Amino acid sequence: MQEMINAQNFTDFDKPNSTTICENYQPKEHEIGERIDKIAALAFHDYSREQIKTWLDAGELTVNGLPQKPKYRLKLGDTLQLKAVFIKQQADLPENIDLHVIYEDDSVLVINKPAGMVVHAGAGNWTGTLVNALLYHYPNSRLLPRAGLVHRIDKDTTGLMVIAKDHKSQLHLINQLKNKSVYRHYQALVLATHSELAKHRTITGSIARHPVVRTKMAVIATGKPAITHLDKIEQICDGVSLVSIRLETGRTHQIRVHFSNLGFALVGDPVYGSDRRMAMLAKQLTDDEKIQLNAFNRQALHAYELGFIHPKTGESRLFQAPMPDDLQLLIKTLRIV
């Protein structure tokens, strides 16, 4: 889900020029007992500490072939093994991509992000991003870290985002995220009944990267604290509810992970979905209804309300975005089941 961005750690995202790396390092005697991230940064000094951390998180930098956390302390006989693809980068380029602007002034921009748009460049998505669009429509955004981004939402989640137009506004909004004064409200179709969800009005569970599947997140005791509130639950058919959700924290994939951890999942979620509950839903549907359900090939999640304190005026601002057509059609279909 949405994440706070440290303004001190912004770098340009680029198109790849990759090099395969395969290196080993045997820690010296005086390095035994030190954290792996510290020694790895010294051993593989051609790469940044941030890159080293990324490889550790991805399981591409291991100890004796096994993934370890950055805080792991080296033991006698340990060997660091780096097997990774290093992506050399070039600056993002402007691209003429349409933006659905909800609100705009000299300080901030509020947009309604469509499904399928990646917020910023990353593995497999080096063009066609929101950052590319911002650089085209707002050329001065090239002077800002990540073109003024303050937070992000998943590629196939729709809805509201606020973007800063100057450094001061960007820092102000980032601090609001840290202080939880940014109001974020979502709508989701959840594979669960009203009674099942009513037991979990507030969902807690620390989130970290999945220990095995590195492209996923998971509820893990040692992860970062995450809190999700269910403000309204409306059952629209047997086994599916439309839920209004309020985030207190903004961890990666937070809503999807929290529901999946409870055994529910969102309708259409390709990563955290529940095949068993989807099969139960499909049994209630006609052939035409099944076609419509299968055509909805993304998680049913929409960021419909966003509130924040305007960084220049100090006024509270609240914006709403209507549910996208594909989600409205799916709900209409399921209501008559």
From TrEMBL:
GO terms for molecular function: 23S rRNA pseudouridine(1911/1915/1917) synthase activity; RNA binding. SMART domains: S4 (SM00363). Keywords: Isomerase, RNA-binding. Residues 34-91 form the RNA-binding S4 domain. InterPro entries: PsdUridine_synth_cat_dom_sf (IPR020103), PsdUridine_synth_RluA-like_CS (IPR006224), PsdUridine_synth_RluC/D (IPR006225), PsdUridine_synth_RsuA/RluA (IPR006145), RluA_PseudoU_synthase (IPR050188), S4_RNA-bd (IPR002942), S4_RNA-bd_sf (IPR036986). The active site is at D154. It comes from the Bacteria. Its EC number is 5.4.99.-. One of its GO terms (biological process) is enzyme-directed rRNA pseudouridine synthesis. It catalyses: a uridine in RNA = a pseudouridine in RNA; uridine(1911/1915/1917) in 23S rRNA = pseudouridine(1911/1915/1917) in 23S rRNA. Belongs to the pseudouridine synthase RluA family. PANTHER family: MITOCHONDRIAL RNA PSEUDOURIDINE SYNTHASE, RIBOSOMAL LARGE SUBUNIT PSEUDOURIDINE SYNTHASE D. NCBIfam families: rluA_subfam. Responsible for synthesis of pseudouridine from uracil. This is Pseudouridine synthase. It comes from Moraxella macacae 0408225.
